[in-house]
Write a structure and sequence with these properties.
The complex is a heterodimer. Chain A is mainly β. Chain A is built from no helices and ten strands. In chain A, a hairpin with a 6-residue loop joins strand 4 (32-37) and strand 5 (44-48). In chain B, strands 2, 4, 5, 6, 9, 10 and 11 form a seven-stranded mixed beta sheet that branches. In chain B, strands 1-3-8-7 form a four-stranded antiparallel beta sheet, with no helix packed on it. The termini of chain B are far apart. Chain B has strands at residues 3-7, 10-13, 18-25, 33-39, 45-51, 57-59, 67-72, 77-82, 91-102, 107-114, 118-123. Chains A and B meet through strand 5 of A and strand 5, strand 9 and strand 10 of B.
């Protein structure tokens, strides 16, 4: 299963609302996770099963979608949110493919 | 507290072999699904291999036949033996624990715990 994120990069300002999309090459139901990765660090789980926030993740993050189209929304960007975001499908066991990543930069 | 620490990365010539390791703490590696994920410089994440608690192993097509995942229960450590290395294997290698969110309807896998990574550079 191929995962395609858009855009590949995005410039935004603190306080902006940002949406990142992820499209699967086939239906994956609700088996979709989102990760945040800061430079030089390992990925951090943000959201699993499309919309369930990992404990400790701020409520400004939200996820939606089903089937093959999904979105990650950050309602009001904070300085610590500038990072790279990855989607991952966990439908096709055991090979859980990732999207190519979306780099969120400060405008 | 769950922690994963990778070691063993380095610079190796094409065709060579290298073993990277991941020491777990705060949980038992042997009773969990453990995964290797890699990230080439400037690229996205690529799932590489998984070792299930029951011992089953799976590999991405790009490494099948060249990489072997294993664990040492006595040292609570996950290994990835990499043979016949290619320039395109150059990447940061992360280990991760696969967890699941389960309801009566289904179980949704995800990777909550990751290490900091170990860098493998394959030169030509």
């Amino acid at each position: 299963i191929q995962m395609t994120q858009s855009p590949s990069s995005l410039s935004a300002s603190v306080g902006d609302r940002v949406t990142i999309t992820c499209r699967a090459s086939q239906s994956i139901g609700t088996f979709l996770n989102w990760y945040q990765q800061r430079p030089g660090k390992g990925p951090k789980l943000l959201i699993y099963a499309v919309s369930i926030l990992q404990t400790g993740v701020p409520s400004r993050f939200s996820g939606s979608g089903s089937g093959a189209d999904f979105t990650l929304t950050i309602s009001s960007l904070q300085p610590e949110d500038f990072a790279t975001y990855h989607c991952q499908q966990s439908f096709s066991t055991p090979l859980f493919t990732f999207g190519q990543g979306t780099k969120l930069e400060i405008k | 507290e769950v922690q994963l620490v990778e070691t063993g990365g380095g610079l190796i010539q094409s065709g060579g072999s290298l073993r990277v390791s991941c020491v777990g703490s705060g949980f038992n590696v042997s009773t969990n699904y453990m995964t290797w994920v890699r990230q080439a410089p400037g690229k996205g994440l690529e799932w590489v291999s998984v070792l299930y608690s029951g011992g089953s192993t799976y590999y991405a097509d790009s490494v099948k036949g060249r990489f072997t995942i294993s664990r040492d229960n006595s040292k609570n450590t996950l290994h990835l033996q990499m043979n016949s290395l290619r320039v395109e294997d150059t990447a940061m290698y992360y280990c991760a624990r696969q967890d699941h969110y389960c309801t009566s309807a289904s179980c949704w896998p995800y990777f909550q715990h990751w290490g900091q990574g170990t860098l493998v550079i394959v030169s030509s």
